[in-house]
Amino acid sequence: MKAAVLTGVQQMEVRDVPDPTLERHTDVLLRVATVGICGSDVHYFRSGRIGSQVIEFPWTIGHECAATVVQAGPAVTDLAAGDRVAIDPLIRCGRCDQCTSGRENTCRDQRFLGNPNEASGAMAEYLVMPAASCYPIGDSVSFVEAALVEPLAIGLHAVRLSGVRPGSTVAVLGSGPIGLSVLAALTAAGPQQVYVTDLIDERLAMARRYEAHWTASPHNCDIVEEIRRDWPGGVDVVFECAGEQETIDQGISLLTPGGVLMIVGIAEQQRISFDFDTARRQEHRIQMVRRQNHTTAAAVELVASGAVDVEPMATHHGALDDAPGLLETVRTYSDGVVKAILHLAD
C-alpha cells in the first residue's frame, strides 16, 4: 500500500509499505478515506518531536481520519465490511486504573495513531484499529465531516471539563481547527458570550461564522485591554488553543477571580510558565486537556443531526501525494488555511 512517510525533519515521501493485517479478533481492517492534517502532525513535520515524544525516522503520522471497514475480526459483532466509520485514534489497554475509572485518554499503556513508537499513523491507504475505536456514520455524514469529528470531540471534551454553563463569558485564544471546535462545542452547549482571537483573518471570519461574539487579532490591538474594556471583571473561562506562551499569559490576564484556564493547545517545548502571583491571588484554576474522552459518539451525533456544521473548516484538499505540500501550507499558515484534508479513497 501507499503511505506518506516522514523521512527527516521537514522531509516526507510517499512510499510503498507493507499492508497491515488483522492480528487481534477484536480489530478491524480499514480502507482510509480521509485524513485531516493536525497541528501535532505539523509539530512532528517541523521539528520531529513534541516535548519528550521524538520520532525515529521513517515514520507515518496522521490521526484525524475516517474510513470504510474492509474486514472485521471474528469477535467483532457491531461492524461489518462496507460500514463507514469515524475513528477515535486512541488505542487503550482497557485494564489499567485509568481505563477502569473512565479516563481512557490517560491510559497508562495507550497507543495513539501517529505518535512516535506507538501506532503508525493514518496517512496510509489501509489501517488496523480496534473495533471499539470505530464509530459508524450515517449516509448523511461525509468522510470529510467524519475526519473532523476527531477535533470536534476534543472541543466537546474541553468544554465538558471546563464546567462552563449557558450565560458564561468565555475567551477562545487561537481559532485554528481546535479553537473552532471548542467554539462550535460552546455554541452547541448553549448561549455564551465568546471572545475569539487569532493571527489569521480567515480564521477570525470562520469564528464569526460559528457565532463568536467578538473577534480580533493581536496584530491590531491589545487583546487583554480590549476584552477587559468590554468585560472589566474578567471572563469566566479561557480556552488556550494556540500552545503559545503569549496566549497562556493573555489567558491569566483575562480571567476573573476563580476563573478557569483550559490549556487545550499543544506547545512544542516541554516547559511553559505563567504569572504565579496573579494566578494565586485570583485563585485561578488551570486545567490541562488531553485529547477527547467519551465524546466521539456525541461529536458524531452533533454532525449527523446538523447541530454542528464542521465542513466549512476544511478549506484545503488534496490526494496522498499532496501530503508534503499541504503540510507545508499548514506549517506556514499559507493561503488562509484552516484545515487541510487528504483524500485517499471515496
Tell me about this structure.
The chain has 346 residues and is an alpha/beta fold. The chain folds into 2 domains: 2-136 and 310-343, Quinone Oxidoreductase, Chain A, domain 1 (Alpha-Beta Complex), CATH 3.90.180; 154-288, Rossmann fold (3-Layer(aba) Sandwich), CATH 3.40.50.720. The protein is built from 10 helices and 19 strands. The protein has helices at 39-47, 97-100, 143-162, 177-189, 201-209, 223-230, 245-254, 276-281, 296-305, 323-331; strands at residues 2-8, 11-16, 27-36, 49-50, 53-54, 64-72, 84-87, 90-91, 111-112, 126-130, 134-136, 169-173, 193-197, 214-216, 235-240, 255-263, 285-288, 314-319, 339-343. Strands 3, 6, 7, 10, 11, 18 and 19 form a 7-stranded mixed beta sheet that branches. The chain has a 6-stranded parallel beta sheet with strand order 14-13-12-15-16-17, sandwiched between helices. A two-stranded antiparallel sheet has the order 1-2. A hairpin with a 2-residue loop joins strand 4 and strand 5 (53-54). The longest helix has 20 residues, at 143-162. The model has no long low-confidence stretch (mean pLDDT 95).
